[in-house]
Amino acid sequence: MGPFRAVKGVQDVLPPDVFLWQHIESIACDVFRAYGFDEIRPPILEHTEVFTRSIGQATDIVDKEMYTFTDKGNRSLTLRPEGTASVVRAFVQNGMHTLPSPQKLYYMGPMFRYERPQKGRQRQFHQIGVEAFGISDPKLDAEVIAMLMELLRQVGLGGLSCEINSLGCSKCRPAFREVLVKFFTPKLGSLCTDCVRRHNENPLRILDCKVPGCIKERKGAPAATDHLCGECREHFETLQILLNDLRVSFTLNPEMVRGLDYYTSTAFEVTSTDLGAQNAVAAGGRYDNLVKDFGGPDTPAIGFALGMERLVALLSDKAVSAEAPVLDAYVVSIGKEPVRKGLVIAERLRMKGFRTEVSYGSSSLKNQMRRADKLGARYVIIIGEDELREGMLSYKRMSDGASGKVSASEAEGLLSTDKNN
Ligand code: HAM
After folding, report:
1. CATH code for the structural domain at 329-415
2. I need a labelling partner for 105 at 20 to 30 A (CA). Which of 91, 124, 301, 355 fits?
3. Does this chain's domain 17-172+228-317 share its CATH topology with 329-415?
């Protein structure tokens, strides 16, 4: 492959596919706004430590997948592999904990992970994510999960169920860790080399390993939900009651551990069997210690991120598409002076908000009309020597062939009459 090709695992999003992306993004903005979330736009580049310290050294992301490089000032920088760490960094750096609580933020944009590309897995992929800070009550968990399901419903993916789990907090996690270590110690010989290392560093990760031998060995492994402290258990039980109140369909998945270390208590994932091996369309959870780990005050938080490419793939399978923007007018002109006039008329229509194309060349009237038809223009505006002399515009309505002559301001009225029909 030559240098003038996109990098492996990185894709262009072109029209008409991009219309579906824009449609999803616009619905997401509306849904988030309705729940009181505002946008944050953190940078794509961060100091490497932002990610190593939050996502965790023993995770696949930090261990193998980060795009890390040294810049000309000898700083180690990383292209963000996810959004949460950046948002937490921004939250602390900008003193956002002094603002009224909760602070509810959303973001959209590209993330980078050096993974083996396959269906539903790219090296540059896009997330729509949210992070909410300052409330430890499970009402916030329920609201955030309900918002995710509502977003999926509005884009055309109603009927998906959310899997939930609780991973415990800094009080109950150490005891659970011990139980896991004990469970896996006699099985060390049958685990993959990564899991042998994980056994030391973070045994929870073994529960997430995709190697068939490890999957077999972890049958009957203890579940975090059986080792929760009283507070975590109550939080998890209340969350389930609230989700029922909000009519959010969910299932308990005690095996879900998530691939990032910052999670505490609530974890959730929305999966679809239609996605194949990479089956999570969205995922998230609580990370009540992260703000403090970043040097901020003790601030509970929860969020999720949704994978755009996977969402688009699911919607395309269901033949959900978004319509291309309608071309309101195509300005056809014949002759040197009319062509100049045509450009001015097109400009005027565009300023009034009509999507307008103009013919640039000197092709025949027939060819220009054919092009207007091909572009699906609602109206063709025709300017020839006669029209120029009379100060009028000829028009043709493409839906029924109706035609006539109008002044420039009448043309605007004409275009708006049936704009949204
Ligand atoms: P995550 O599970 O690593 O969580 O990613 C969230 C979603 O991003 C996945 O469910 C998937 O849809 C998509 N995704 C991840 N990697 C790829 C890839 N290589 N190619 C295509 N899509 C991908 C996080 O990133 C957390 N920051 C979520 C979160 C926010 N937790 C709390 N707040």
Report:
1. 3.40.50.800
2. 124
3. no
Domain ranges of the chain: 17-172+228-317, 329-415
280 lines ligand 1 (CB under 6 A): yes
Residue of 165, 162, 175 lying closest to 229 (CA atoms): 175
Residues 45-86 have pLDDT tens digits of 999 999 999 999 888 899 999 999 999 999 999 999 999 999
pLDDT digit string, tens, across residues 314-353: 999 888 889 899 999 999 999 999 999 999 999 999 999 9
Would you say the CB of residue 305 lies under 6 angstroms from ligand 1? yes
Select from 89, 260, 287 the residue to mutate for testing ligand 1; criterion: most ligand atoms less than 8 Å from CB: 260
260 alpha carbon to ligand 1 midpoint, in Å? Answer: 10
Look up the CATH architecture of domain 17-172+228-317.
2-Layer Sandwich (3.30)
* Any ligand 1 atom below 6 A from CB of 282: yes
Q: Which residues contact 116 (CB under 8 A, 6 or more apart)?
A: none
The two structure tokens encoding residue 325: 């923007």
Q: Is the CB of 109 under 6 A from ligand 1?
A: no
The answer to whether the CB of 113 is under 6 A from ligand 1 is: yes
Rounded Cα–Cα distance for residues 125 and 109 (Å): 8
Answering whether pTM is above 0.90, one says yes
| Torsion sign over Cα 22, 307, 89, 112 | negative
